[in-house]
Amino acid sequence: MPTLRPRDTDFIDSASTRITTTVTVNATPDEVWAVLADNERWPEWFPAAKECRTTSDAAEGVGATRWIHVDVLKVNERFVAWDPPQRWAFTILDANLPGFVSMVEQALIEPADEHRTVVTYVVAADLAPYMRPLIPFLRRRIGAMFEKGLPGIEYQVVRLREETTSRQ
Fold it and tell me: What average pLDDT is seen over the chain?
């Protein structure tokens, strides 16, 4: 798989392409965090995720790694921010599709009120020059994927609440 240049969260401000999706979900920040941090269960709530698994000894924290197959992409990622329950970010280390130079994804989790949380998801990327004509297409495709997928956080929170209730 083509290797990308690893970056930290500072890259988000300097990336040539940024795609931001914001959703408000009926859940607390801790509940949202629990959903985002559970790698293996991403396919249960994020429709584009076909498989996701932890690839490091630790599943959590800066330096932890995971592999995910989402839409047509298969990528290896390393977490570069892990601030429960406010922020989580990773850099993509390699991808099955050529043309990406660097990529960082970040989720910001902020309480809207006592029972609702705003999730702002940012995909920041630099692309090879030959890929730049595809940026409008990528913006639409990636934007639509997150607009459709992020509301699934609320669905998963409800599911986790039901699991907790049934175990008691």
Answer: 96
